[in-house]
Design brief:
Blueprint (H helix, E strand, L loop, with lengths): L4 E6 L12 H12 L2 H7 L6 E5 L10 H14 L2 E5 L5 H11 L7 E4 L2 H10 L4 E4 L14 H4 L9 H9 L5 E4 L16 E4 L2 E6 L4 H4 L23 E3 L10 E4 L2 E5 L2 H12 L5 E5 L4
Parallel strand pairs: 1-2, 1-12, 2-3, 3-4, 4-5, 6-7, 7-12
Antiparallel strand pairs: 8-11, 9-10, 10-11
């Protein structure tokens, strides 16, 4: 395995003209988005190869057929391969996904975060490539936890039952977050080529949305399935505990809580990349 591939993730249309720029311009781009000069300098030499489009966490951010058609055109124009992101799926989401999956070119990757979606791909869309998403990668990631015991709760992806499930569903690659208390062994036993998300881990997700509910009154407030105006595309909230030494800063975005990598987590990921244990890096194409 050589240098990792680099994917840019988005749930809406992005300006991708910077991708063809020289590394110095790409470094300025990453710096503007994520505010980390060291991270920007590390990413800049890597030419983006993929556009991740859709949402891993929210059914309301699943693209329309029109949005996906435009994203496919934009990715092709930028020389990127499009990867469709999919969330945990209700029957309604499965019906919407059905229309989207028929639009993808043969060989396209689909990141699945629901075993039912993986089964749907395996049984009805054998020309597409299911990728096990990070929602399916269970491990403790809450930055409020104590390293004394939380560090022992790893992902377990190399267990025989997981390997058998991946094989049965035709899953040949994985996506994970950086473990909260990562050490040298954190990336050593991954059973399949693995993409790693940065510079945030997803801590937890639900179906109720804080930002989307604050302006709603009555029984729809904080209700599952309420109307959505996609407030998460405009607002996020820092989550902190004054006086506590949490392992990382947390951000509430829509129905999902994210935590920024600590310096130790970033160091662990770079060691894994240097050791050629990471196939792909996935970076948000817009600030959280």
């Amino acid at each position: 395995m050589n240098a990792p591939e680099l994917a840019v993730a988005a749930c809406h249309a992005l300006d991708l003209t910077w991708i063809a720029a020289a590394p110095a311009e790409r470094a300025r781009h990453w710096q503007r988005i994520h505010g980390d000069a060291e991270l920007a300098a590390w990413l800049a030499p890597l030419q983006p190869t993929h556009l991740y489009f859709g949402s891993e966490f929210c059914e309301h951010l699943l693209p329309s057929t029109r949005a996906l058609r435009e994203a496919l055109r934009q990715a092709e124009s930028a020389g990127l391969r499009l990867v469709l992101l999919s969330p945990v799926a209700s029957p309604e989401v499965l019906a919407r996904l059905d229309a989207l999956l028929t639009m993808l070119p043969a060989g396209s990757e689909v990141v699945v975060n629901d075993w039912g979606v993986a089964h749907e791909l395996a049984s009805r869309f054998p020309d597409l490539r299911p990728v096990a998403g990070r929602v399916l990668c269970r491990m403790t990631k809450d930055p409020r936890l104590d390293a004394g015991w939380a560090g022992r709760c790893g992902h377990g992806l190399a267990a025989p039952t997981m390997r058998g499930l991946f094989a049965r569903l035709g899953i040949r690659s994985l996506e994970i977050d950086v473990p909260l208390f990562a050490d040298d062994a954190a990336f050593a036993d991954l059973p399949l080529p693995t993409a790693v998300h940065l510079p945030y881990v997803y801590v937890a997700k639900g179906r109720m949305c804080r930002a989307g509910s604050l302006a709603v009154k009555g029984p729809e407030r904080f209700a599952v399935g309420r109307r959505c105006q996609k407030e998460c595309l405009r607002f996020s909230a820092l989550a902190s505990r004054p006086g506590r030494a949490d392992a990382g800063a947390s951000v509430q975005l829509g129905n999902t809580l994210f935590s920024r990598h600590s310096a130790a987590m970033a160091h662990s990921l770079r060691q894994a990349v240097d050791g050629k244990r990471v196939a792909r890096l996935v970076v948000p194409g817009a600030p959280l």
